[in-house]
Amino acid sequence: MITYILHNIFDILNTPTNVILLLLVFIITYGLFSLRKPSGFPPGPMGYPFIGNMIEVDNEPLVTLAKYGKKYGDVFTIKIGSQPVIVLNTVDVIKEALVKKQNDFAGRPYYYSLSGLMAEECEDITFGNYSAKWKLQRKIGHQAIRNYASGDKLESLIRYDAFPSFQRAVARENGKPFRPHSLIYLLVGNIILSMCLGKKFENDDPEFLKILEVLNNLDQAIGNGLVADFVPIFRYIPTPGVNRLKKVLKEWFNLIQNQVNESKGKFDSGNNDVKSLIDDLLSIQRKAELAGEDLAKQLTDVNLRQTLADLVGGGLDITISLLDWAVAFLTYYPDVQFKVQSEIDDVIGDGRLPLLSDKGKLPYCEAVIRELLRIRPVVPLSVPHATTVDTSVGGYVVPKDTWIWCNLWNVHMNEKHWDKPEEFRPERFLDADGALLPHPDSFMPFSAGRRVCMGEALAKNELFLIFTSLFQNYTFKVPPGSKKPCLKGHCAGLVMRCVSYEVIAIERRK
Ligand code: HEM
Predict the structure, then answer these.
(1) ∠68-72-77 over CA atoms, to 5°?
(2) C-beta separation of 103 from 60 below 8 A
């Protein structure tokens, strides 16, 4: 048949009907071919030609993956467009991959929007390929964060600048209902930007608002990803989605690069005063160069601005989402809010804002933060991984370059590990005397292994300080006549967000 077609191709193509017929045959064959799973891959749902399981997974990713898990087991394959993805659905297989075989699963898949455009061809930490240069880039980023995560820098930033500025913004609401997300955005934005750039901002500072606006536009332009992520031909077609993303990214890179240049100019003129995380990154990199670490010389300006972009972009969005969930849940459950406030009142009182040294003394508050991270793990499917070599997981052989999703959400919702997992119950993290229990293996909001969240230590300290400061100073209530916040999440890109809601904030310390 094929030989016949090849020999008579020009005769066949001589009428429009035949051309259309041939095209149809090609499309149908390609469509059927796109349904095929690579041999040896774990089982999974069939899906549709061209799009695979994309519609179901895009609509309700967490519900859909839980349903597939029940049918196909701990490890299964889905298809996003023509791209096969292996989903790891339980703690055992996730730990086998990310901890036991951590090097094998430390890669990242290539997404055109995130790895290509946003990370300037994988030059950042989050989407960078697992390599010696990437390890050094992560080490430098990690070291710079560590200098801020503990100690006075973070504490004083919150106590003296960001939180008082947040209080002034709440006071301007004058007891009227407002959306906490927008004020939390300004609060966390102020902390992260002051930390990264060494600048202090009032909430209405035009430079500050411009950076937040660009970040917000970036978020919207990325949305749930681009078609070009899964259908490669769209990378070469200037679709409105790609054009919009490129435009916002140009603005974002300009903003970030200007900050890097300011810092570099300072260092080049002999001023080695470290005032911000970007100064830290530069000084650690220069020390590595002087110590003869040749790889440090390979870290370019693009790597530097991408590391900064990872810290600003990643840190901001995820932390804001968790705090937005915190206000939503504690407004919904006033009894939990009351217990949080009573513990803070007993231990700290109202004479000063909370400090990191209070951490061990507020077990109930810590249990609430943990329960929030369990019930709403803000990066529920982690950041996608890829295999770096031929390997195996859950008894299946997995070839190099396979895309892997780790379903952290399902781990936190597994009845084998959590009693009534859908209930918000902070006490599950406490013993009978109210002391904090060590958290179990099945609690993994920051993921695990080589790619474990780089900001984990900073995030935990930041969440503790902001959370306790918020509830020490305010009681959040549902506005009269309004409904309680909706606690059902929705996934936008990699992040699980709260549906927008309103509260009133009643000041507790007059
Ligand atoms: C509530 C707070 C946060 C949560 C729940 C969280 C969670 C996560 C998760 C699940 C991952 C993916 C890990 C993997 O690929 O297996 C991740 C990666 C990452 N996070 Fe976080 N994160 C938080 C805050 C932060 C903050 C504050 C920063 C930085 C300032 C940060 C920086 C990063 C970076 C750079 C990566 C990529 C690491 C890599 O690819 O090696 N995160 N985070």
Answers:
(1) 75
(2) no
| Whether the Cβ atoms of residue 488 and residue 63 lie closer than 8 Å to each other | no
Write down the pTM of the prediction.
0.92
The CATH superfamily label for domain 90-507 reads Cytochrome P450 (1.10.630.10)
Residue in 147, 446, 494 to alter for ligand 1 test, most ligand atoms within 8 A of Cβ: 446
- What is the phi/psi pair of residue 441, to 5°? -60, -30
Helix (H, G, I), strand (E, B) or coil at 305: helix
Q: Would you say the CB of residue 109 lies under 6 angstroms from ligand 1?
A: no
Mean pLDDT computed over every residue of the chain: 90
Contacts 24+ apart (CB under 8 A), 229-236: 229/111, 229/112, 229/113, 229/114, 230/54, 230/80, 230/81, 230/82, 230/83, 231/50, 231/81, 231/82, 232/112, 234/112, 235/112, 235/116
Nearest to 172 by CA among 202, 192, 199: 202
Measured distance between the N- and C-terminal CA atoms of the chain, rounded to whole angstroms: 86
d(CA 101, CA 388): 11
Q: E strands along 145-199, which residues?
A: none
Each residue of 55-82: pLDDT tens digit?
A: 888 888 999 999 999 999 999 999 988 8
Burial of 387-399, coded b for 16+ CB within 10 Å and e otherwise, reads bbeebebbebebe
Flag whether pLDDT at 253 surpasses 60: yes
Pairwise CA distance, residues 405 & 241, whole Å: 25
Ligand 1 near 162 CB (within 6 A): no
